[in-house]
C-alpha cells in the first residue's frame, strides 16, 4: 500500500505545481455559485436548502472532471514517463489507484471549498444539514465515477484532447441513461430488459436519490461499483497497450 | 546478473527482437550496439519489465521479469530511452519521489539522495523544475534516479546522449566506478564509448545478435588491425618502399591528406619491417602509427552484411 500512497502524494502535488489546480478550483467555485444564484433561483425559492446548488453539479462535472482526468495517463504516455512509472516496483493496479485517488482528493478539495454556501444557508435559515451532508457525499461519489471513466479513456490515448472528448461523451451518455435521448436509441433494437438495465445506470437518478437525503446502500454501491469497474478497465487497457 | 533466453518481441508481422540470449555477470559492463531500429531499446524494455516478451524469457538476479516482476524491478535501476521524468517537479522532489517508491527511508534515503546529487553534479539545480533544465541536466537527472537505490543491476539506454564531451567523460567514469560490483548494460551508438566503458560488446541488427565479444577482439576483426599508417614528405617514394615489404598485402593513400596506410597479410605484423625499410631508404616520415583496428569499420561491416543477407532472404 505504500506504493499507492507515494504515488498519491506525487500526483496530488503535481496538480498544485501547475496552474491546472487553481484554474479548476476558481472556475468550479465561480460557476457553481453563479448557477446556484442565477439559474437555480436560490433566493427566489425562499427555502433554506442547497437544492439549487447541487442540481447543477452533474453538468459542471460533465466538463470540469474530464479536464482533470484527461492528463492522468495520456500525459504519461506522451512524455514517456509511463515507462519510468511502470518499471518502478509498483503494480499497474497500484499506479491506477494512486492516480485516481489523487484526482478524487483534488476534486474533494474543490468541493470542500464551496463551504461558504453552506455557511450562507445556515445563516439565512435552518436547513436540514443531514440532507446537505448526503448531497455532498453523493456529489463526491458522482465525481469519482466521472473520474474513473476519465482514467480509463485517458489510458486509451496519448492525446489529451481525445481523452477529454471521449470522456465528455461517455459521461454525457451515462448521465442521461435514464432519459429518452438514450433509451429511445436502445429501444430500437434491444429488449425491454436491456432498456431497463441501461435506464438504471443513469448517474442522475442515483445522484438525485442520494441528494434527497436518503443514503440507500444500492445508490452507494452503484457509484462504488462504477468506480471499481472503470478502474479495473483502466488497468487492463494500460497492460494491453503499454508500448503505444 | 542478467540473463535472457531466446527473448523475442513481435508486433504483428514485424519482428523487433528475434531470439536474443545472453548472460551478463556482476562486474561486467555490456555495451549494446546496433543501428537505429535494431531492437536495442525493445530488448532493454523487456528486461526492465516494461514490455512483455512475445516468447522467451529474461531474468534479473534470478527473478523472472514476468513471473516475479516486483522482485526483479527492485534489483534494477533503469534509464529509459530519452530519460523521461516529471517536468513539473523539481530535481529534489523527483529524486525523493523515486527514493520513496523504492522504499528508502530515514537516514539512508537522505544519504543516497545527497550521494547521487553529488555524483552527477546536480547541486546547482536541485530546486529547479526539471522542465527548465538543459538536455544534459535532464539526462543526468535520469541517471540519478536510476542509481538512487544503489541497484545491483543497471540498464542505461543511451546514457550519454545529449551530453557535452566533459559530461560524457564524467558519466563514463561514473559507470566505470560502479562497474566493480554491479551488472550493467549500456546501449549506445557512440563507438568510442564502447572502448571507454565496456568490457564486452554485443552488436545487434534486425533483432539478432551478430557479434558478442570483447571490444579488443572486435577491433582485431577490422582490416585496420595491425595496419601501419604514416604521412611522408615524398608520398610516391614512400609508397614504393612500402610495396617492397614482403608482408604488406595492400597500400592505400588517402587522396585528401596523402596519408598512407599499409595493410598486412592476415596474421602478420609489419610495423618493424616498415620502420626498417623507411630508414634504409632514407625516406623522411612526419609521423608513423600502428593501427589498433577501427570499431566503426567493424560495426559497419557486420551490420551491413546482415542487412544485405536479410534483403536476399526476402527476395
UniProtKB/TrEMBL annotation, chain A:
Recorded GO MF terms: ABC-type transporter activity
InterPro entries for this protein: ABC-2_transporter_component
Membrane topology: Multi-pass membrane protein
Domain of life assignment: Bacteria
Protein name: ABC transporter permease
Main localization (coarse): membrane
Subcellular localization: Cell membrane
Lineage, top ranks: Bacteria, Pseudomonadati, Pseudomonadota, Gammaproteobacteria, Lysobacterales
GO cellular component terms attached to this protein's record: plasma membrane
Residue spans crossing the bilayer: 20-41, 53-74, 95-119, 131-149, 161-183, 189-208, 220-238
A matching Pfam family: ABC2_membrane_2
Keywords: Cell membrane, Membrane, Transmembrane, Transmembrane helix
Amino acid at each position: 500500500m505504500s506504493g499507492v500512497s507515494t504515488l498519491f502524494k506525487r500526483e496530488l502535488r503535481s496538480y498544485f505545481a501547475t496552474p491546472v489546480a487553481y484554474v479548476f478550483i476558481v472556475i468550479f467555485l465561480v460557476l457553481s455559485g453563479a448557477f446556484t444564484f442565477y439559474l437555480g433561483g436560490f433566493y427566489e425559492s425562499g427555502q433554506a436548502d442547497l437544492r439549487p446548488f447541487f442540481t447543477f453539479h452533474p453538468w459542471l462535472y460533465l466538463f470540469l472532471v474530464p479536464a482533470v482526468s484527461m492528463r492522468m495517463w495520456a500525459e504519461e504516455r506522451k512524455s514517456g514517463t509511463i515507462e519510468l512509472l511502470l518499471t518502478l516496483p509498483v503494480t499497474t493496479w497500484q499506479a491506477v489507484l494512486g492516480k485516481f485517488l489523487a484526482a478524487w482528493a483534488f476534486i474533494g478539495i474543490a468541493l470542500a471549498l464551496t463551504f461558504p454556501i453552506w455557511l450562507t444557508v445556515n445563516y439565512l435559515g435552518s436547513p436540514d444539514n443531514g440532507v446537505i451532508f448526503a448531497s455532498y457525499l453523493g456529489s463526491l461519489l458522482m465525481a469519482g465515477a466521472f473520474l474513473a471513466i476519465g482514467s480509463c479513456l485517458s489510458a486509451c490515448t496519448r492525446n489529451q484532447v481525445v481523452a477529454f472528448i471521449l470522456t465528455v461523451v461517455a459521461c454525457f451518455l451515462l448521465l442521461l441513461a435514464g432519459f429518452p435521448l438514450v433509451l429511445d436509441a436502445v429501444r430500437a433494437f434491444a429488449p425491454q430488459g436491456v432498456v431497463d438495465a441501461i435506464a438504471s445506470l443513469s448517474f442522475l437518478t442515483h445522484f438525485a436519490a442520494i441528494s434527497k437525503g436518503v443514503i440507500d446502500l444500492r445508490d452507494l454501491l452503484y457509484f462504488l461499483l462504477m468506480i471499481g469497474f472503470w478502474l479495473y478497465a483502466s488497468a487492463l487497457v494500460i497492460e494491453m497497450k503499454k508500448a503505444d | 546478473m542478467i540473463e535472457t533466453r531466446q527473448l523475442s518481441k513481435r508486433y504483428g508481422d514485424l519482428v523487433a527482437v528475434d531470439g536474443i540470449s545472453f548472460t551478463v555477470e556482476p562486474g561486467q559492463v555490456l555495451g549494446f550496439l546496433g543501428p537505429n531500429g535494431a531492437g536495442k531499446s525493445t530488448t532493454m524494455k523487456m528486461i526492465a519489465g516494461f514490455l512483455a516478451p512475445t516468447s522467451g524469457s529474461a531474468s534479473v538476479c534470478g527473478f523472472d521479469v514476468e513471473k516475479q516482476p516486483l522482485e526483479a524491478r527492485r534489483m534494477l535501476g533503469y534509464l529509459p530511452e530519452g530519460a523521461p521524468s516529471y517536468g513539473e517537479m523539481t530535481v529534489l522532489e523527483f529524486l525523493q519521489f523515486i527514493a520513496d517508491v523504492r522504499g528508502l527511508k530515514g537516514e539512508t534515503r537522505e544519504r543516497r539522495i545527497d550521494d547521487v546529487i553529488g555524483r552527477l553534479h546536480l547541486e546547482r539545480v536541485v530546486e529547479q523544475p526539471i522542465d527548465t533544465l538543459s538536455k544534459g541536466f535532464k539526462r543526468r537527472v535520469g541517471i540519478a534516479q536510476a542509481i538512487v537505490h544503489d541497484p545491483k543491476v543497471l540498464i542505461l539506454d543511451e546514457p550519454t546522449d545529449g551530453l557535452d564531451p566533459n559530461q560524457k567523460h564524467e558519466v563514463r567514469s561514473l559507470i566505470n566506478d560502479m562497474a566493480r560490483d554491479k551488472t550493467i548494460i549500456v546501449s549506445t551508438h557512440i563507438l568510442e564509448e564502447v572502448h571507454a566503458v565496456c568490457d564486452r560488446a554485443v552488436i545487434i541488427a534486425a533483432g539478432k545478435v551478430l557479434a558478442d565479444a570483447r571490444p579488443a577482439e572486435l577491433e582485431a576483426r577490422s582490416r585496420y588491425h595491425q595496419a601501419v599508417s604514416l604521412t611522408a614528405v615524398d608520398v610516391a617514394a614512400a609508397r614504393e618502399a612500402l610495396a617492397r615489404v614482403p608482408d604488406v598485402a595492400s597500400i592505400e593513400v588517402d587522396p585528401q591528406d596523402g596519408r598512407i596506410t599499409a595493410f598486412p597479410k592476415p596474421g602478420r605484423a609489419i610495423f618493424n619491417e616498415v620502420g626498417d625499410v623507411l630508414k634504409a631508404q632514407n625516406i623522411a616520415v612526419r609521423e608513423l602509427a600502428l593501427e589498433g583496428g577501427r570499431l566503426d569499420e567493424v560495426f559497419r561491416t557486420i551490420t551491413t552484411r546482415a542487412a544485405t543477407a536479410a534483403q536476399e532472404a526476402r527476395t
